[in-house]
Amino acid sequence: MNRALEINKSDLVAWGTRELWNIVQAKKLERLVYVGIAADICVLGKGEGMVPMRKLGVPCALARDLTDTDSYPPEEALEHTLRILETQFAPTLDFADLLAEQGLWPGTESVEMVRIQPWGKPRRPYFFKEFTTVTLECAPQLGREIRYTLDGVEPAITSPLYSQPIILTHQTTLRARAFREGKPAGLPSDAFYVKLPATPPSPTLRLWELAPTRVRYPDFKSEWHVPAQTWGLTLRGVNYYQGITLHAPGEIEFAVPADATRFVALAGADDAPKGRFNAQFLGQYPSMTFQVFIDGRMQAESPVMRMGQMPWPFDVPIPRRAKRLRLVVTSAGDGSRLDIGDFAQSGFIIPGYNGPKNLY
Fold this sequence. Notes:
35% strand; 6 helices; 5-stranded antiparallel β-sheet; 21 strands; Rossmann fold; Jelly Rolls; mainly beta
């Protein structure tokens, strides 16, 4: 979100077709100009989007300099989307030019940022497995010179010049800024990327086959209360046979089998809130971190996890003579009652173990 964006008392926030239609009628609006992302999904298809408004007879236009697309590669995909939209659905315009013509925008200062695709933030990281390709793009009024860094430092005129997509292969904080005539133009932007560890093997002894030695639940009561061991875990639309589910903040402890060499799991935010009527809004709230402790010392921790992200793989070596394994799900500091965390496909690797057949 652009840090220069302000919402004041004259602004209106509409939810759904009916509410936006009421605003159009009350304000006697002659046309709606859409800005934002993504032109190929939200701008068109949401309840407040162009499609339902056009069906109600409201003329619509799209600000082509203030929109984006979810498709790839970004610049080519956006131009393709705009061509289809302009020829088959609605006109587009340059919003900066429109404001300048009305005397509402001097054009001497820009609050635009370099657009980074794909992007993530520390509290909503962008995960990738082996590598990811990042593209940078800036609005024409900022010029075409983009400088970037890969160490979190704000770009300067001496920073690397962007000329082609960037290939990332490890955890990175990328920052970018446009420059015009050797001086910064617009605001700096940043993105955070995390490389997923390798997917661990399935456990030979599953945690749900063991009785926990201690379980701690949240202090509050919630309709989302779940048992520590449960059926039907779902992460990113994938169903898992059984595993450990904790409502954050919560923790569970197990005795470590004598011959166990590793603890493995796939951890993530359960899809449970998606079943609610207003799931499109609830889905943004769950956020949690997963931690693995052995004999009181934290051995591994995930980044902040949210619904819809790829599960975080844990493959933690177990020291010899270890006694206790403790799994913790934190609320990541926001205290949401929708924080339902799963340790799916979780358990111990025990060489030579001949227990029950693995059902994962």
